[in-house]
Amino acid sequence: MTEPENPSRRMFITTAGAAAAGMVLTACGPKRLYEVPPERLKTSIAAMERRYKEQFGKDITVSEQGPLPGVHFAYALDISRCIGCRRCVYRCVDENNQSRHPQIHWIRVFSMEKEKGIDFTHADPYYNPPEVPEEGHFYVPVSCQQCENPPCTKVCPTGATWAEKDGIVVIDYNWCIGCRYCMAACPYGARHFNWRTPTIPENEINTHTHYLGNRPRPKGAVEKCTFCIQRTREGRYPVCVEVCPVGARKFGNILDPNSEIRYIIEHKRVLVLKEELNTVPRFFYFYAT
Amino acid sequence: MRNGLLLLLLSGVILPAADGPKTPPAPAGPERIEVPPPPFSDGIFPCTNCHAGMPVDRTRRELTAMHTDIVLKHDETHRWCLDCHDPTNRDFLHLASGERVPFDESYRLCGQCHSEKYRDWRAGVHGRRTGNWNGDKGYLLCAHCHNPHQPRFKALAPKPAPQPPTRSMP
Amino acid sequence: MQPENAVNSIRLFSGFARGSLKLILRGNRMYWTWLAFLGALIVSGVLAYSRQVQIGLGLTAMRDQVSWGFYIGNFTFLVGVAAAAVVLVVPAYVYDWKPIREIVIYGELLAISAITMCLLFVVVDIGRPDRFWHLIPPFGFLNFPSSILAWDVLVLNLYFILNLSVATHILYRAFHGKPYIKNLVVPLVLLSIPMAIGIHTVTAFLYNGLAARPYWNSSILAPQFLASAFCSGPAILLIVLQVLRRFTRFEIRDAAIWKIAELMAYAMFLNLFLHGAEAFKEFYSNTQNLLFTRYWYFGVGTHHTLVPYAWSAVALNLLAFGLFISPAARRNFWTLNIGCLATYAGVYIEKGMGLIIPGLTPDTLGEIYEYYPTVTELRVAAGIFAVGFLLFTLMLKVAVPISLGEFLDKKEATARALEVDFSCPV
């Protein structure tokens, strides 16, 4: 009859083995980008760039630019000026590599009646008159409000979406499992799902991308406006701001007292959508006149 | 009665001042703002090429000999060409005070009537924004977007509406 | 563990496994037709799902405007069915009502099948099933306690393990002619009461916590879920028990069946009352949030797809309530079974379609996209239901003989001296 094994020694070996296996697996395997150390991030991004080269046959650069210190982005949209021409919508589609078939638009412009005011129940995003603006109507474009108290980030079961230090709410497209809980939670309809494999015409791909922004996305993941993170973290404006022909869109650093955003908040009458939901959006609407 | 009138006048001056400034101060910055060159039509500038030797006719009228392509729709019931263009030197515009301003400072002229927009424009809030949000801002002249003779924007054809969701996908 | 014990356990288990296999493979024509039918549905479901994985969720009718649909509706309904096992546990253990003790185990087997179906519905609904492991620490990350979905993952799996452990323990012990270990089973069974309430409350909170969806963001949701769960689960069980009584030597007292029906009546009353309270608040306050309820019951503009379903659910629920509240109707097996089917159908419609779709229609920006499932969704859902029914059937095929003492391991079978009373363990 054999001697009974020393239980404490056996326990030690099994737990040590399990811990080691766990460490190896978590160290080598994929991780959500939120907590990846910088070195790991660099190698992940290099791998992404290689995959994109294979997939699209183009040299797509993926930036890993982090948030700039002392910056919290905010946006302001002048609804006394917007004429509903939708140039922002399509410029955004080009810049941010959105799928053409099935069609994804990060910006949705709503035509509203002046008599009813800002009332989404009676708004129409499918207006298509020969010319805009139409008589008796005004226009309200809606995209991600980059809330400070985002309802979408708190419901994600895998932590695939979070708010960065500069206020941009981002998504890790490789970590998202596509459960769409965030889409149910967003009060602004700002999040969009890749119901099929996204398609981008080869000659229209924007090769200057950011790993949390406009890099080509996979099927089955959620995406949304990122304030053109690939541009704004390099000091440039989002493309919607630059293309608007009537100058209705403004953008800046709300922490900078000299920014356009602070001027607007202090001198114009700003409002936010669905304020009672306490999402604290960083996207303001105002009337300049 | 004269004292009463004086008191009334003074109250008109003092009381508003006692309320404190109602309008926001214009943002600090150099008086002159760098802008791209004014959007002249080809060959039209310098105006003195033609106007140097011409006699000045300040009679308000409809032009028939030249500049007939310009249809004024900018407070045309009260103003005409020479209310903005300097009569004695057509290479300049003039303010209400008579002070001459060059075309690349035309914002000062527009700002006389449209002062709120002028203040907003200086802050970077009125008009299309280009440049860097954290660096040099690119300014444009009023005239770069607004035709000074017909400033109201023409209606645009909107880009296509989004596709409504359907049960069958493309 | 000593080597001999290990070998013995393996021998015993393989005896159990072989015996179970024999039981499963032995049946009359009706049994095999039933299995063939389920098998066909499963194959159809698997084919439809593989196409969905290949092409994407675009094969469903879900779009950005209505981003959850048939799959999640079924998931919600089935969580309720799983929670219903507790309806049997409470009178059996808390009130020590013996006639029900015999059948609690069947409630647990139903719960196991229902949770399996729930998990399958979640898997087919997510856009990247290959990334399911992202939910499991330490390989992945579970956003607990912030995300209610993370809570749901935990409590559903715990409830599943709880029911599986208790049921297998009891049945396996009975297989060996031994009584179950009271000190192990009774606390676990009692624990299953708050757990059952827990799983359905957490599932209700999934919807309840979303301020973006006013139709769901109402405190009444959790109690209403529980009320509708407690009628729907037992409805299936009552039918199954009568089937067992007819085709096997299984005995269940009429009193037990009538008692369950009576409890269902009270649950249905609560369900109807809570719906009525919700309707009052919406119609009387008459805010823009009324639009969701209005879409469900009356349609909005030209959009009327769900209206017939809404009123069918109301009619079925009222019918069920009327039948179950009357003792005479309860005792008549025709009306009893009609009542069960009416309850099941009524709650299925009201919780499956009547919860998810009106909650998302109109969407947050006022747009109405009328959702109803595509053929792919129906095939996949039918396949998953078939998996659940198959699992339940096979488990019953083994469990019933065990509880009747017909399926015992060789040693015990020969040593049967009748003194062991395992009238159902639980």
3D structure, described in words:
The complex is a heterotrimer of chains A (289), B (170) and C (426). Chain A is α+β, with helices and mostly antiparallel strands and 289 residues long. Chain A has helices at 7-28, 38-56, 87-95, 151-155, 181-185, 229-232, 239-243, 260-267, and strands spanning 61-63, 73-78, 108-113, 137-142, 161-163, 169-171, 192-193, 208-210, 222-223, 249-253, 269-271, 283-287. Chain A folds into two domains: 7-58, no CATH class; 73-287, Alpha-Beta Plaits (2-Layer Sandwich). Chain B has a domain at 26-39 and 71-151. In chain B, α3 packs across α4 (115-123). The radius of gyration of chain B is 23 Å and the shape is extended. The termini of chain B are far apart. Residues 11-24 of chain B have low confidence and may be disordered. Helices cover 72% and strands 0% of the residues of chain C. In chain C, α10 (254-285) packs across α12 (307-325). The longest helix of chain C is centred in the middle third of the chain and has 32 residues, at 254-285. Chain C starts with a helix and ends in an 11-residue tail after the last helix. Chains A and C meet through α1, α4, α5 and β7 of A and α7 of C.
Helix and strand arrangement:
The complex is a heterotrimer of chains A (289), B (170) and C (426).
Chain A lengths: L6 H22 L9 H19 L4 E3 L9 E6 L8 H9 L12 E6 L23 E6 L8 H5 L5 E3 L5 E3 L9 H5 L6 E2 L14 E3 L11 E2 L5 H4 L6 H5 L5 E5 L6 H8 L1 E3 L11 E5 L2
Parallel strand pairs in A: 1-8, 2-12
Antiparallel strand pairs in A: 2-10, 3-4, 5-6, 7-9, 11-12
Chain B lengths: L1 H18 L28 H4 L40 E3 L5 E3 L3 H8 L1 H9 L6 E2 L5 E2 L3 H4 L25
Antiparallel strand pairs in B: 1-2, 3-4
Chain C lengths: L2 H22 L4 H27 L14 H14 L1 H10 L3 H4 L2 H22 L22 H28 L6 H27 L12 H27 L6 H32 L4 H8 L9 H19 L1 H5 L1 H28 L14 H29 L6 H6 L11
Helix pairs in contact in C: 2-15, 3-6, 3-8, 3-9, 3-14, 4-6, 4-8, 6-7, 6-15, 7-8, 8-9, 9-10, 9-14, 10-12, 11-14, 12-14
